[in-house]
């Protein structure tokens, strides 16, 4: 599935129109439509806003493989574990 399809599916799941999305980003509806049809790539700021509005992980949209399923909460937990291990090394 490409970026445009993922965005369109998430938008439809939230019952938002293309016009609603364009207003929230903000951008014009015609250009937003081009993003969903993969005619135009979103800018980094537009991609950030789309992810915020639709509650999407950018790694999912960008097909970053296995990392697409790692959430920010997962990353925070991993950082905490790493810090704990540094503070409490295993004694052999």
Summary keywords:
92 residues; mainly alpha; single chain
Radius of gyration: 18 Å
* SSE ordering: HHHHHH
Count of separate DSSP helical elements? 6
Strand content: under 5%
Give the low-confidence spans: none
Structural class from helices and strands?
mainly alpha
Termini separation comes to 49 Å
The count of DSSP E runs of length 2 or more, i.e. the number of strands, is 0
Overall shape: elongated
> Helicity range of the residues?
55-70%
The description of the largest β-sheet is: none
The residue-averaged pLDDT reads 87
Question: What's the quick description here?
Answer:
By secondary structure, the protein is mainly α. The protein has helices spanning 3-13, 18-24, 29-36, 44-54, 58-61, 72-87.
